[in-house]
Amino acid sequence: MRIQLFPLHAVLAPGIALPLHVFEERYRRMVRRCLDASEPFGIVLIQRGRETAPRGSGADALTLSGIGTFAEIREADLLPDGRWNLLVVGSGRFRIRQVSRGLSSSWEADVEPVADEPGDREAEAALVARVTRRFVDYLRLLQPRDGEEVEPIDVQVEVDVEAPDEDDEDESGDDDDDEIDEDDEDDEDDETFDDETSDDGMAPGVFDAGGPAQLVEVLKIPDDASSLSFLLTGIIQVEPARKQELLEAVTAEERMRGLDALLTREIGLLRGRLAFYAPDRGESLESEN
Known about the structure:
Shape: globular
Largest sheet: 5 strands, mixed, barrel
Strand content: 25-35%
Order of helices and strands: EEHEEEEEHEEHHHHH
């Protein structure tokens, strides 16, 4: 299959949502084509070079990763000047077979979908339990200490939320569509426009994680090794190259082992970080006297 590519210095993992601001004319056209055809585009990590380099000026030196992620458009807001604000969600991986630049200078590629190969089920189950515990420890250590300011986790995740019941509307006649994040005044930015529901009455919704505590409250941690490994690949705060290594793992077991090692490293760094120091003014005055 042939898709439009959007090269970035970032990695999108399946199940993770990513807000995008599209301002270049060639990518504005890409968005319009994808919306008109109800097709995804592909997000792929730039390994080397500048995507914006014009033809004949070293553009051929641009190196893209061989594995990318299908980006399905969940929300598309067209601004008056023609720019787009998008919310996309990773829906699966692809392998690039051949890449080229179209007449409009946008990137295109022949790709094939990639699924995880079967792994050792017993090993995967053991890793799910171990990595889940480490992930909870990781989030706990991300909580701010006294005197620290928490940095929001720069990630949005697609989660299952209860679909509103048509017969269960409030007295004003408004649907209860804001169950994803009751504290967010701009709920429509965090929801999908897709009203499809699954057999268990759940609908996909996009949640803006915010801080670690909020993520723990909303996140339903999967017990499936493949789903869990992709989710954590998108959430763990490491450099893009490491995320790409996880994305390219052949099996969920391999990806989980990589996450186990990364979480072990990150937990050690978080435990060893310096505590915030604020001198006691009273003790300082006593020492001066």
